[in-house]
Design goal:
- By secondary structure, the protein is mostly helical.
- Among the domains are: about 70-130, no CATH class; about 175-245, no CATH class; about 245-300, no CATH class.
- About 50% of the residues lie in helices and about 10% in strands.
- It has helices at about 1-10, 20-35, 40-65, 105-115, 120-130, 135-155, 160-165, 170-205, 225-235, 240, 250-265; strands at about 70-75, 90-95, 95-100, 265-270, 280-285, 295-300.
- The chain has a 3-stranded antiparallel beta sheet, covered by helices on one side. The protein has a 3-stranded antiparallel beta sheet with strand order 4-5-6.
- Helix 3 packs antiparallel against helix 6 (about 135-155).
Length: about 325
C-alpha cells in the first residue's frame, strides 16, 4: 500500500532538502499520527477509538443545536433593551412576558450587551452556558477519556502533546508556556481596561460615586454590557443604531463589489439544483477577466430550528489544484 511504499523510501534515508524533505517528514509524521506504524490489532483499536470520539463530538454539537432554552422576563427586567427588540417575532409572549431564547446567539448577545439588570444578564448567561448539560456532561467525560486513550496508544504523554505536535508549539508544555507568557504580557493593559469597566459598574451600584464603595467584580455576564456602555460613552458608538445603516441586501451587494474590485472576481447568482431551505442562494464565482469558473458557494443566511445559529462557513467540497494547473 501507499504507506508501506513511502515508509520503504524513507528508510533509504534519501538526501532531500527544502520542500521535498518537509513533505516526506510531514507525510511520515501524519501516517504515524494516524496509527499506521502500529501493529494491526493496535491500529484497529485506535481506529475504533477515533470513530467513537468522532460520534460523541457530533452528538455533543447536535445536542446543543437541538436544545431550545427559553427564559422569560418582564419588560422591567429587560430595561435598556432597544424598543425594536420587543417587536421581534416570538419575543413578546404575554401581557408582560418576553421570552428570550438563550440558545439563539443574536438574542443572547443583544441582552448581554444592553440589559441594565445584572440579575437578568446572569440568568440568561447561565442558561446559555448550560445548554444540553444533562446530555453533554456525560458525553464530555467520555470524550476526555477517549482522547487520553488515543494519545497514549499512539505514544504521546497526553492529548495536549498529540494535538500540538503538527503546530508551531510542538508540545503541550510549549503551548502552555506561550499562554502564560501572553497573559503576563497583556496583564497591564487588561488591568487598565478592567478598571474602566469596574468604575462604570461602581457608578451603577453606587450612583453617588462614593469612592469608599468596594471595587465591584466584573463577572462573565457583565463584560459585554459594560464594554458596550463604554463604547457608547467614550466613542459615541451605538452598535444597535448602526444596524439601521447596514440592511442585509446592501451589505451583501457591497461585499461582492469590494471583492470584485480587489480580487478581479465576478459573482453571479444561479439556480440551485437542490434546496434544503427556500431562501437558499447559490452563487458562482469566476475570474472577471477570463470568465474561468473558480468555485461555487451557498448562502444560508437566516436562523432556524436545528441550524447552527452563529456566523460560520462550512466546506462541502474543497478546492484543489488539478494536474493541468487549473
Amino acid at each position: 500500500n501507499v504507506y508501506k511504499s513511502i515508509k520503504a523510501f524513507a528508510e533509504t534515508k534519501p538526501q532531500l532538502a527544502g520542500e521535498d524533505k518537509k513533505l516526506l517528514d510531514e507525510t511520515m509524521r501524519d501516517y504515524r499520527r494516524a496509527g499506521l506504524a502500529l501493529p494491526p490489532p493496535k491500529r484497529k483499536e485506535v481506529e475504533q477509538l477515533r470513530k467513537q470520539l468522532a460520534k460523541l463530538g457530533t452528538d455533543f454539537g447536535t445536542n446543543i443545536a437541538n436544545t431550545k432554552q427559553p427564559v422569560v422576563f418582564t419588560k422591567a427586567e429587560l430595561e435598556g433593551m432597544p424598543e425594536d427588540f420587543f417587536t421581534k417575532p416570538g419575543i413578546k409572549t404575554g401581557d408582560d412576558a418576553y421570552t428570550v431564547l438563550a440558545n439563539v446567539t443574536w438574542q443572547f448577545i443583544a441582552v448581554e450587551e444592553n440589559a441594565k439588570n445584572e440579575a437578568t444578564r446572569k440568568k440568561l448567561y447561565i442558561a446559555h452556558d448550560s445548554l444540553a448539560k444533562e446530555k453533554n456532561v456525560p458525553l464530555l467525560n467520555k470524550m476526555l477519556d477517549l482522547r487520553n486513550k488515543i494519545a497514549l496508544r499512539l505514544g504521546y504523554k497526553s492529548w495536549d502533546d498529540f494535538q500540538t505536535e503538527p503546530r508551531m508549539a510542538k508540545n503541550g508544555a510549549a503551548a502552555q508556556k506561550y499562554i502564560d507568557d501572553l497573559v503576563a504580557g497583556i496583564e497591564p493593559k487588561f488591568a487598565a481596561e478592567l478598571a474602566e469597566l469596574q468604575k462604570m459598574k461602581q457608578l451603577d451600584l453606587q450612583p453617588s460615586g462614593n469612592s469608599a464603595f468596594a471595587t465591584p467584580r466584573i463577572n462573565t455576564w457583565d463584560w459585554r454590557y459594560y464594554q458596550n456602555q463604554l463604547k457608547k460613552q467614550k466613542f459615541a458608538v451605538d452598535a444597535e443604531a448602526l444596524r439601521n445603516f447596514f440592511p442585509f441586501q446592501k451589505v451583501l451587494d457591497g461585499m461582492f463589489a469590494i471583492y470584485q474590485g480587489i480580487f478581479g472576481l465576478k459573482f453571479e447568482q444561479i439556480a440551485a439544483p437542490y434546496k434544503w431551505i427556500d431562501h437558499l442562494q447559490l452563487w458562482a464565482v469566476s475570474d472577471a477577466a477570463t470568465g474561468e469558473p473558480l468555485g461555487l458557494f451557498y448562502l444560508d443566511m437566516f436562523p432556524r430550528d436545528g441550524k447552527f445559529n452563529h456566523f460560520a462557513e462550512f466546506e462541502i467540497i474543497g478546492g484543489k489544484l488539478l494536474p493541468d494547473g487549473k
